Amino acid sequence: MTSTLHRETLENAAFRAGYGALLVFMLLPLLVVVVTSFSASGRVAFPPDSFSFVWYVDFFDSTQWLDAFTNSIVIGVGTALLATLLGVLGAFGQELETDSVVGSVVAPVVLIPLLIPPVILGITLLLYFNEVGLRGSYASIILAHTLWATPLVYFVMRSVFSRFDWQQLDAAHDLGAGPVRSFVHVVLPNVKHGIFVGALLAFIISLQEFVMALFLSTPGTETIPVLAWTEIRQALDPMVSVVSTFLILISVGAIIVAAIATNLEWVSKQLS
Amino acid sequence: MSEITLHELEKQYGETTAVEDVSVEIEDGELLCLLGPSGSGKSTTLRMIAGLETPTSGEISINGDDVTDDPAYERTTSTVFQDWALFPHKTVRENVEFGLKMRGVPADEREQRAESMLERVQMTGYGEDDPTNLSGGQKQRVALARSLAVNPDVLLLDEPLSNLDKRLREDMQIELREIHEDLDETFVHVTHDQDEAFTLADRIGIMDQGQLVQVGDPDEVYENPKNQFIESFLGDTNFVDARVTRTTDDAVYVDTDLGTELVLPTDTEPAVDEGTALTLSLRPEILSIDQPSADGGTAADDASEQQLATDGSSRTAVTGTVENVIYRGSTVRYSADIDGTSMFAERTDATTGTLSAGEQIRLEWNGADVLAFREDGTRVSL
Asked: Is A116 helix (H, G, I), strand (E, B) or coil?
């Protein structure tokens, strides 16, 4: 009995060590990116010869970068709103229509955009948006990113709704709440954390998406990944590291916000 | 005025028929229990009255208005659900106020009404509590308060007591009964528990395989069941296979595996032919238990005891061996082997002369108390 336990502890320790090593190996490049952003020289080298904030100062002086930053935020927020609306309603509607034909085709249809290579999607959408006159607008990139973000929100919401007690919806109807009011008063408060997480996910997807944005953006709507790529083609300087550091910070920040938001209620319950 | 009329109600899910041809008039102020095993369509029927399911065909009217196509939120019914379905993100008071809020009742009036409802269900002081922290019995009370708060014409109860333990369930049955008498509203209560139905109901509607088999007063459905399903569902009984050997003007004589011919006295000319296979039901309460005389009962003794009296009763007795004795608290149940057929009878514990396994036992009954059913389950009127 003791020896079995001992072996189990050893195996656990070995597994954890291996898992940790793999994780560190995969995350190390992120550290390299952050460190190189503080380089004083004009080339990307690790470790840098000397440290300074010179590239950060340059970033905040550059209207080009700041515009790209604004574009990314606008497109990210737009994508988050649209993808969340579509994903939540799609998943909710499917729960109500589990037996119907419409319900059974929703999941595969929502999934299709994820299965098409982004290069193909980018070219196709470019042609399509040219036809309908959306070229060069924020809307074109928001719609493209929504194609990718909606399935993710949708699957997050499917899992959230699967834990929802649907009898509550019956109870709301029974007590006189129509479809809209029962959704607002009963469904929404139960799934708001899931919706928030889905929206953050959509935002991050949009923030990092490069291929479709490359095809669809014009100088006025260039996002950070697109500008970074253009810049790298000319010179690989630590500015790219600075921008990457900001992207990493935003993503990590979003995850922390999501964790806090979903746990706030739990925390408040523990305190009371 | 809150009478409900169901007319040829039917509900199909794809190929499956959940409810078939249910017609019943539920009177104003009545407490009707829909009783049946799981899958008998009783909950589906209730949900159709609530408006939570749409009937495939048929009509539902409440107070004379056809509400068949009205959604749940436009009906004057209110449901207490099996799992209570309290809103976990709202406080107890917010739960109780919800229906009033949806009806646009001002906040202070809502609060007042919620408080008085919580008082009625003995949950005063729990208004600010999180319903997820309440016990099952408390949740049940809150759910009841929430449904009563909207002052429904009809209260629908979908097995709300089935998740409670026995003691609490019995307390709640009595409380429900009192609330019903207080409010004088129409209640429809769904349950699979016959004790609950008998405790609560003004009338019982028995459902089986989607059909409403019989509706009647509790004593009527128990004593005068329409078919063998009802007889077997309402309490325990001994079913004995029999075959008609001969009929006379005032009795049916049947052959059974009990080793003796039985006489079933009839009021009218019996509606069975010679050779018809029957199933007899001998409820434990019609069987009286005795110890046979020292020399043991013989076939001759039994035959001599089997006489058709002029008042339409007939005493019949059989003897056998006690197989086992089960103490069930207030009663003792004896299982006996009667000439190869197993039968059981009950005695209250106080009865003297306790029998033990292996001893001889004599069961006696009045033939007029025996019910007989045909092979298709229909009752033979005797």
From this structure: coil
